[in-house]
Amino acid sequence: MGNDGLRTRLLALLPVLLAVSGAQAQAPQPPAADLIARGRYLTLAGDCGACHTAPGAALDFGGGYPLATPVGVIYSTNISSDKIRGIGGWSDEAFVRAVREGVSQDGHLLYPAMPYDAYAKLKREDVLAIKAYLMSLPLAASSVPSTELSFPFNQRWGLAFWRWLHLARGELKDDRAQTPAWNRGRYLVEELAHCGTCHTPRTFTYGMDNAKAFGGGDLGSWVAFNITPERNAGIGTWNRTELASYLKSGCIKDKASAGGGMAEAIEQSLQYLTETDRLAIAEYIGSLAAVGDNRQTRPRDRWGTASSTVYALRAGRLSSVTGAGLYNSHCASCHGGEGEGNGDGEGFPSLFHHTTTGAYDSRNVVAVILTGVSCRGQNTTVMMPAFTEWLEDEQVVALSNFVSAQFGHPSAATITPARGKARREALRAPSPAAIEDGRLKETPNGS
């Protein structure tokens, strides 16, 4: 074959070679390992797994976690790499819009049980790092129960008005007058860790009441305490090192131990932050505007003293229906006969000078008795069994009122049997799946 013939054949193959090389150049490249690692850290900081993983699920981020809200139970969506049920087929734009604006890929509006009002100012690069991490994980091919709310809350078009009222767009910008640590802390507290979602009270439209930012949230059967630096109502008696340690371990000796949603946040999220980030959070929280409450007349960790009531009564016959008798039977072995705690005072804390018993509202005392405590922080574990199956409503009332009166805020010792029963009912976990006619009611990607 002559040179002319070879040249002709090469020229004929040139379009094919260009097409192949172009396809290779356009093929999506897997995210770099450092981007995935950064996304993992941001996912932990955002506590994404807590809501997007159903109890007992074999794989993370498959959705289906039942979120009890004032308008009904909302099931979290599948955000795994599954292309049908999850976000595997979503573009970057679609994912960013869902996280920051509450709009799903198909255009339907998400309920703000997904805290996109907090995430609205997240940096785009951080949102995409989270997506890169999620896409690197094994897919969870699990369908999610459908969210079915009663009228008018089942009309999603109404969420457009809610978003107009409560969604502030635009990435959060640093305040140049503040330190880098303060700016980092603000980004974590206000955006990524979305602390205000629980710790800020809500308006009548269920938006965050930013005039009382971080002044304490009503979570139904739980209270998310005031975390502003107000001395009595907030955490003004805490120093920054204590707060950073609390976010790591879930407890501060002779002062506080986490329960409920806060224990979950520490166990699944906050303990994994770097010490630098935890101290940044503490610095920013220490700078918040103080929000007071005249019902809290003394710091929550300054109420109560050791009580010898139980020891004095042990010589006689303690009734199983009195608060003292119930405390002696169920609590004294761990918390001490005088409420002084046991061991190092962290795993089995003192009940006096404790931020839970020293609150004017005893909802958290009742909730802890009924549901127990499970908080595994770094190098510390706080555990308490749930007594919901062991104690009747009248016994829960008697015990909680005794604890408040003897070791905490006396004004909180006012729980009635009717209120105790209502709180037990409210604390019952919603069913993780909706069954109708023997079939699971599912949607491809939840709500």
Automatic annotation (TrEMBL):
Could you say which EC number(s) this protein's record lists? 1.1.99.4
The signal peptide stretch is: 1-25
Q: What Gene Ontology cellular-component terms does the record carry? A: plasma membrane
- Ranges for the Cytochrome c domain? 34-138, 180-289, 318-407
Which of this chain's residues are annotated to bind heme c 3?
Answer: 331, 334-335
Q: What segments bear the compositional bias annotation Basic and acidic residues?
A: 436-447
Renumbered to this chain, region (Disordered) spans 417-447
Per UniProt, heme c 1 binds at: 48, 51-52
> Which amino acid positions bind heme c 2, per UniProt?
195, 198-199
List required co-factors: heme c
InterPro entries the UniProt entry points to? Cyt_c-like_dom, Cyt_c-like_dom_sf, Cytochrome_c-type_DH, Membr-bd_ADH_cyt_c
Q: Short name of one Pfam family for this protein? A: Cytochrome_CBB3
Q: Which domain of life is it from?
A: Bacteria
Q: Enzyme group, top EC level?
A: oxidoreductase
Could you tell me what the cofactor note in this record states?
Answer: Binds 3 heme c groups covalently per subunit.
Subcellular location per the Swiss-Prot or TrEMBL entry: Cell membrane
Hydrolase listed as a keyword: no
Q: Which GO terms describe its molecular function?
A: dehydrogluconate dehydrogenase activity; electron transfer activity; heme binding; iron ion binding
The record's Gene3D superfamilies line, in alphabetical order, gives:
Cytochrome c-like domain
Q: Which UniProt keywords apply?
A: Cell membrane, Heme, Iron, Membrane, Metal-binding, Oxidoreductase, Repeat, Signal
Q: Which PANTHER family match?
A: ALCOHOL DEHYDROGENASE CYTOCHROME C SUBUNIT (PTHR35008:SF8), BLL4482 PROTEIN-RELATED (PTHR35008)
Protein known as: 2-Keto-D-gluconate dehydrogenase membrane-bound cytochrome c
